[in-house]
Amino acid sequence: MTKILLSTAYLPNIQYVRALIQNKTVVVEQYENFIKQSFRNRCTILASNGAMDLSIPIEKGCSKHLIRDTKISYSQHWQSQHWHAIVSAYNSSPYFEYFRDDLEAFFHKKYVFLWDFNTEINAQIFNILNIKTKISLSDDYIHEGNAEYTDLRNEIHPKKTQNPKHNYYDETPYPQVFDSVFGFTPNLSVIDMLFNIGSDAEKLLKSV
Q1: Short-list 7, 42, 199, CA closest to 119
Q2: CB of 150 within 8 A of CB of 4?
Q3: Distance between CA 192 and CA 86 in Å, rounded?
Q4: Quick one: which of 130, 172, 167 has its CA closest to 151?
Q5: pLDDT higher for 36 or 63?
């Protein structure tokens, strides 16, 4: 049985979390270089004007650094901006008030490294979703084509078109705050599902 190989991710999307929750063993790559314009520092939520990207700014020159050593830039007030966007998007969702305290603190604490921020906020989300998957870290850089792994590091990517049921991508609809305006929007950050359907998210993420 192959292992699932993932990158780190900021508020990971549903495809990422489905891969995580549907497998017993997952390895997260910690020895790759930071890759720009990927979900490593970007997530997508559904706001009143449609799908909205939130990106964590990275210090200049960090694209040549290992992902573990990639530093967050605080030249912009990105934490308050991101949290304000999340509140505006989900304040009227059924479960926002129930879960907001679990996440808000992460947007008030300054983290030096992107890796640490992602790891800690994701651990909170995975705990809420009751994910029991064993998550290991790579001991060295894992090269593409390694038959031991199903490599999703660059398959789950904002610029790659996915098909239903391909690499855990899924378009099963659930209620969303703005679905009367935009229809159902698939594969957003998992917080969209969490704030809209609460504990039912776990069941939907496990569905094959």
Answers
A1: 7
A2: yes
A3: 9
A4: 167
A5: 36
